[in-house]
Amino acid sequence: MTFPTWALAGFWGLVSGSALLLGAGVGFFLRVPQRLVAAVMAFGSGVLISTLSLELMEDAYQKGGFDATAIGFVGGATTYTVANWLLARRGAKHRKRSGSQQHEERQKVKSGEKPSTDAGDDNGMAIALGALLDGIPESIVIGLSMLAGGAVSTVAVVAIFLSNLPEGLSSAAGMKKAGRSASYVFWLWAGIAIISGLASLVGYAVFSHFSADVVAATTAVAAGAILAMLADTMMPEAFEEAHNFTGLITVLGFLASLFLSKIGD
Predict the structure, then answer these.
(1) DSSP characters for 133-181?
(2) Which helix (H) or strand (E) holds 47?
């Protein structure tokens, strides 16, 4: 039985997004040492850095040249940064932290100490939107990777899966310490996993009708957003606990992704 390509795009997006739910289960129910969480975050960061530099940016450059790639890359980073700044004002700044940061930030929101909050507010919606902001660019990439020949980029799926696992783990651990219920945590990540599948489907179905320049710019937009996300949310958590070992672990993640990309060569 042959499935339509758009359905396969959605399936692989769902597979990569499911790692968020898996990681959340580990982070919520098991007592994972924060240093181990940080190490996994650093490894996942290295994997994503390798993927966006060796896969996404190279693909964007080959399809659209430097101009489209540069505009998309900076545009994606700018859009993510502005959106992340707005959400941080609503209490989602530490949404991926596994320590006490989420608890402290939630208390500030409830007391109205955050710039865009009033006393009695909660930051649950801001965290949900932040998780969505972090996940959509990665998922769109999977759909875009299928435009060339209808086959998914195994490297992209594996890389995003490996990076989503520590994201869900770290964030869920922090949410538990902030007093979030299990239903909130798992409905949140289940919803993000489903939206990841839809975003991947859209990435293929919508952009299959556009020119190579548009596809290149969109790929670069996703790459820029992912890199900005790494710098703003994942790397701070990694360095907080792993300290001097962060760089080495990140390099190992980069090398693992490079190895995966060269297996089929």
Answers:
(1) HHHHHHHHHHHHHTTTTS---HHHHHHHHHHHHHHHHHHHHHHHHTT--
(2) helix 34-51
pLDDT 10s digits, 97-148? 777 888 888 888 888 888 888 888 888 888 888 888 888 888 888 888 887 6
178 pLDDT more than 90: no
Cα maximum dimension of the chain? 58
Helices (H), 178-245: 182-207, 212-229, 235-242
**36, two tokens:** 């181990």
Q: Which residue has the tokens 């009033």?
A: 118
For the entire predicted model, the pTM comes to 0.85
Judge contact between 25 and 193, C-beta under 8 A.
Answer: no
Please choose, from the candidates 228, 225, 212, the residue with its C-alpha nearest in 3D space to the C-alpha of residue 67. 212
Interior angle at CA 20, CA 160 and CA 51, nearest 5? 10
What is the H or E stretch that residue 257 is in?
helix 246-262
pLDDT tens for 246-264 read 889 999 999 988 887 777 5
Q: What pLDDT, in 10s, does the model give residues 231-240?
A: 888 888 788 7
Instruction: Specify the 3-state DSSP secondary structure of 91.
Output: coil
**Predicted confidence band at 220 (pLDDT cuts at 50, 70, 90)?**
very high
Helices (H), 52-119: 57-89, 101-110
For residue 92, give the nearest of 126, 135, 132, 128 by alpha carbon: 126
pLDDT over 70 (residue 93) = yes
Angle at 255 between CA 259 and CA 39, to 5 degrees: 130
Angle at 222 between CA 88 and CA 233, to 5 degrees: 30
